[in-house]
User: Fold this.
Amino acid sequence: MAEDLLPDKVIFVTGGGQGIGYECAKAYAAEGAHVAVADINLQSAEETAAQLPGNTIALACDVGSANAVEAAIKKTLSHYNRLDAVHNNAGIANPAKPLHKTTEKEWDDLHRINLKSIYLTTRFAFEALKTAKGTILNTASMVGLIGQAEHAAYVATKGGIIALTKAMALDYAPLGMRVNAICPAAVWTPLLRKWAQEQAEVASIEHYLNDIHALGYCPEGDVIADAATFLLSDKARFITGCILPVSGGAELGYRR
Assistant:
């Protein structure tokens, strides 16, 4: 029988109530981890935690609020008395606009939730992660590497996550801490399915989302969770500063 990849690891995952975060929380628990599921929607976090084996907790957390993040990390440490990994997964994608049409509030909200949140979790979890020689994983996006039309502020945050991941990896390597990022392209989540159903030609949208991946299909979140599980495990013990595409080859270039 294969050994668990994350035996007794304590993992704090943001945005764990739905989508990629939900799939990651499930995968971590299945591999032996104890998961603190943090989400701005406490009910969603509780529903996720209730499905997981092991010692799991649900936490209400607005990742853009210093007070909320500090409280969630404190509750995690109080419950487990340690912390081995933080997965910064929570994020928003709206609005989809070019830069000059983006309002200041939209710009600020995207940066607060997608990028500042990594500063906040690192700030409040740092001492525990240092003690554990732990791991930080950031959910970035392929758009942070290759760009995307009419999505400027979102792309800026994901590019920022990629650059920040590299800087953090260098800063924390002497402490034995690893920092990596994962880059999905499109992934079927409840939010993406809702968006697709709202489009004028649903079939063409689904075809487009399949076709942008060289492997020919738009995946479910479990493919991201599998890669994330590896990066948080000791199997990746000599990997840091890695920006890992899990994109089905979406970035490889022109195809016929």
